[in-house]
Design goal:
By secondary structure, the protein is of the alpha/beta class. It contains 27 helices and 29 strands. It has a twelve-stranded mixed β-sheet with strand order 2-1-3-4-7-5-6-8-9-10-12-11, with helices on both faces. A six-stranded mixed β-sheet has the order 21-22-20-19-23-24, sandwiched between helices. The chain has a five-stranded parallel β-sheet with strand order 27-26-25-28-29, sandwiched between helices. Helix 22 links the parallel strand 25 and strand 26. It starts with a helix and ends with a helix.
Length: 784
């Protein structure tokens, strides 16, 4: 499936789970949102004749439809009552109406998200009071609340509708819960919030879902609603072939490849898993085969059967494992929690045949093994560890012939008789049981700050000897899950619709201060630091991270701390002093507060009349002043960009590198070039550079086209960090990446920030890889 297909098909989940009558006739009414036109393909897949009509042309439709589908149609007209009447007229007396609509009271509206129709914040909450009638006609419609939608349906004889609250968005429905009923599980571990405008957010839905469930607010503030209803002449009964009255919840997996896209329909007495594309029919048989295999290995998996509707299992009355384990830690304490985790570790270790270490291909143990080069110093790391000490082997643990990654807490109920797993769709060959066990622990702790307070996750990982190889275990799980759920294909889309931590924190801080105060304290913290001494207030983790990140760029005079016992000691070689140091300071200085809860210290510094203060948060990225500011040359035309950025390895510097830097400098006043460290090359490219970092850095800095060379930090190597640090107008790269999906996602993200990504023609006749190959060949010839 192509990237565009993956995004295009996301909205199919609204109706692709439904069992439509064969030989039926359907009408899809389209509006101002092209994303929903894909619903036509659902009818194509099941062989139903379907017509598509725009709202203005409804008068041309002859009627007599078994199904009428309106997706975001109410939001596409200023006469919603007329639209509903037309839908009713064109529907058979026993026909079914599907109405998918946004909720103007959706949770995102209260978190800073923009209204889907007007493009402004807060409009839906005050019922569009700031939008004039003329402007509304230009926009073409707006969203409604559930009460307003109910009234419209009643007015045209649509009674007793089945209503499902849709999360996290109509554009990508993932969970639909019958209105008023409690979901089967927490959302924070299952879905990611989606937004129309991530750049205006000051809170994330994922942090609120659980509280809204507990306080019965979830449905009133759903992202949207799916109504399924008939005319009152039919007694208000919907299609009984689907037993809609008995459906509690629908989970859909859109965005996956067609073979893996499934819908799970939870009834009061059964659960049916259904393929959402014809190509997915074989996957249902795999689920049944996997369940039988796991049960044969002692794993409690719910028994099911294949039916005309899909793969059917009984409804399990139990608590989702995530919530059960959290309750154990809260109510029973550390020892009980670890004891229960040990039981699941045992289940995972016995879920498949054990491979001896001699049977494992250790060169492929790293899921990105294909990237490794012959000179990679870690090429045989796992083979050596597998043949190493007893301690080395214990840290790797048991290798399973089949690893079922979905033996996870979100796919398990705890019942009176013990755990029962479900939905085991796939397995990965040759994977450590510890990788599956680590995933269980991390899902339990996800979005759960109380758990970290009660028992830090690091302590749990230490207890089960998981920390040593946690990185490779995470890679094995993430790589295989990404491949299975097609997540890499949706990277650009997810960037556009998901919350960003930096943005949320900055927007939230901005609400507490004036614009000038906010910028000085929280965002442009290095703006006026040149020529001043730097003091850090605090001597803990935040101070250490500031020192690690910036000590090579700025001279730090001292750390200030209110704790008298620390005075006279040091942190990372920086002396710790009393606050009186600032009172006696005679030179210009700036204080960076390096404390998580900074309010009291900020007030203290203001009382001391400290003039220059900033608040440092190691989780944020900060713009940094240019060290070299080039000026436009008089008489020459202005360049297209002011600040440009290039990132690269620059190993064995050659004419291709020179061409890239020359072309970049031709288009910008200031060119910043990031150089990748040796550590990062070995980690990502799986090879060792010929020229060490210090020399590569010096060569780049010495190039006449480069205004400033910078080190690309290993833990923040991406474009997003670079952009937030240097605020460049364009990033330049070779054209060999022009069609790479990851780089296209980067390009789209930069465009959202007002920046650009420019690809230059690749110098075909030379590359560092080519030169290294020639050197290797020459060396082998000499050895002969």
């Amino acid at each position: 499936m192509k990237t565009t297909d993956s995004v295009r098909d996301l909205a199919r989940g609204l109706i692709a789970w439904y069992n439509f009558k064969k030989n039926g006739k359907a009408l899809l009414i389209t509006g101002n949102f092209p994303a929903f036109e894909v619903l036509f393909s659902v009818f194509e897949d099941v062989g139903i004749k379907a017509d598509v009509v725009d709202i203005p042309r409804l008068d041309d439709v002859s009627g007599g439809y078994d199904y009428v589908v309106i997706a975001a149609g109410l939001e596409s007209t200023v006469e919603p009552g007329k639209l509903m009447a037309a839908a009713a007229v064109n529907l058979k007396d026993d026909g079914t109406l599907f109405l998918a609509t946004f909720n103007r009271f959706n949770l995102g509206q209260f978190l800073g998200d923009k209204d889907v129709t007007t493009g402004h914040v807060l409009d839906g909450i005050d019922n569009y009071a700031q939008i004039s009638e003329k402007r509304m006609k230009e926009i073409g419609g707006h969203s409604y609340s559930k009460v307003e939608i109910d009234e419209m349906l009643a007015a045209v004889g649509m009674t007793a509708p089945q209503v499902f609250s849709v999360f996290p968005s109509l554009f990508r429905p993932q969970i639909m819960v019958r209105y008023g009923e409690k979901p089967n599980e927490r959302f924070d571990a299952r879905i990611q919030g989606m937004y129309n405008s991530p750049e205006t957010l000051y809170l994330n839905k994922n942090n609120l879902y659980d509280d809204f469930m507990k306080n019965d607010l979830l449905h009133q503030m759903a992202d949207g609603y799916l109504y399924i209803c008939t005319k009152s002449q039919a007694g208000g009964k919907t299609d009984q072939t689907n037993n809609l009255d008995d459906i509690h919840e629908i989970t859909v997996q859109t965005g996956r490849v067609p073979e893996a896209a499934m819908a799970t329909i939870v009834y009061t007495n059964k659960v049916v898993k259904k393929n959402m594309y014809p190509a997915g029919a074989a996957a249902l048989q795999k689920i049944d085969d996997n369940a039988k295999y796991l049960r044969a290995h002692g794993v409690p998996v719910v028994e099911g059967k294949l039916t005309e509707s899909g793969y059917e299992t009984p409804f399990i009355n139990g608590q989702i494992l995530t919530e059960y384990l959290r309750d154990i830690l809260i109510n029973a304490g550390r020892e009980a929690f670890l004891a229960d985790l040990s039981k699941f570790k045992n289940i995972f270790e016995n879920s498949s045949h054990h491979l001896s270490y001699a049977e494992v291909d250790w060169t492929k143990f790293d899921p990105y093994w294909e990237k490794r080069k012959s000179d990679d110093p870690e090429l045989y790391k796992w083979r050596d560890l597998a043949n190493g000490t007893a301690e080395d082997k214990a840290a790797i643990g048991i290798i399973l012939e089949r690893g079922y990654l979905d033996l996870a807490p979100i796919n398990c109920f705890m019942t009176d008789d013990g755990p029962v797993f479900f939905d085991q769709e796939f397995y990965v060959p040759q994977i450590p049981a510890n990788a599956i066990f680590l995933r269980l622990i991390e899902v339990v702790y996800a979005y759960w700050p109380e758990g970290y307070r009660l028992l830090p996750m690091d302590e749990v990982l230490d207890y089960f000897n998981l920390k040593t190889n946690a990185e490779i275990f995470r890679l094995q799980v993430s790589k295989n899950l990404i491949d299975f759920i097609n997540d890499q294909e949706l990277a650009a889309y997810n960037r556009k619709v998901r919350a960003d931590y930096n943005t949320i924190v900055n927007n939230r801080f901005r609400m507490d201060y004036t614009q000038d105060q906010f910028e000085k304290l929280f965002t442009d913290i290095f703006k006026d630091v040149e020529g001043k001494k730097i003091y850090l207030f605090g001597s803990g983790d935040y101070a250490k991270k500031f020192i690690e990140k910036f000590r090579n760029e700025y001279k730090i005079a001292a750390c200030i701390d209110n704790n008298e016992s620390k005075w006279g000691t040091d942190v990372e070689g920086i002396p710790i002093c009393s606050p009186e140091t600032l009172v006696n300071e005679t030179e210009g200085y700036k204080v960076f507060i390096c404390i998580k809860f900074y309010d009291d210290v900020l007030a203290q510094l203001k009382d001391m009349a400290v003039p220059n203060i900033a608040v440092f948060d190691p989780r944020l990225d900060y713009p940094r002043p240019l060290k070299h500011v080039a000026q436009a040359t008089e008489g020459k035309p202005a360049k297209k960009y002011h600040i440009g950025y290039v990132a690269g390895v620059f190993d064995m510097f050659h004419i291709g590198h020179l061409n890239l830097l020359r072309r970049a400098k031709e288009q910008c006043d200031n060119l910043i070039v990031g150089v990748v460290t040796d550590q990062q090359i070995m980690h990502n490219k799986k090879t060792r550079p010929v020229i060490p970092f210090e020399q590569r850095y010096a060569i780049v800095q010495g190039c006449r086209y480069v205004d400033e060379a910078v080190t690309i930090p290993a833990d923040n190597a991406g474009t997003e960090y670079a952009y937030r640090t240097y605020r460049f107008d364009a990033q330049f790269s070779g054209s060999d990446y022009a069609d790479d999906p990851n780089w296209l996602a980067v390009k789209e993200w930069l465009h959202q920030q007002g920046s650009d990504l420019v690809f230059f023609p690749y110098t075909e006749e030379i590359s560092s890889t080519m030169l290294k190959g020639q050197l290797r060949d020459s060396s082998q010839e000499e050895e002969k």
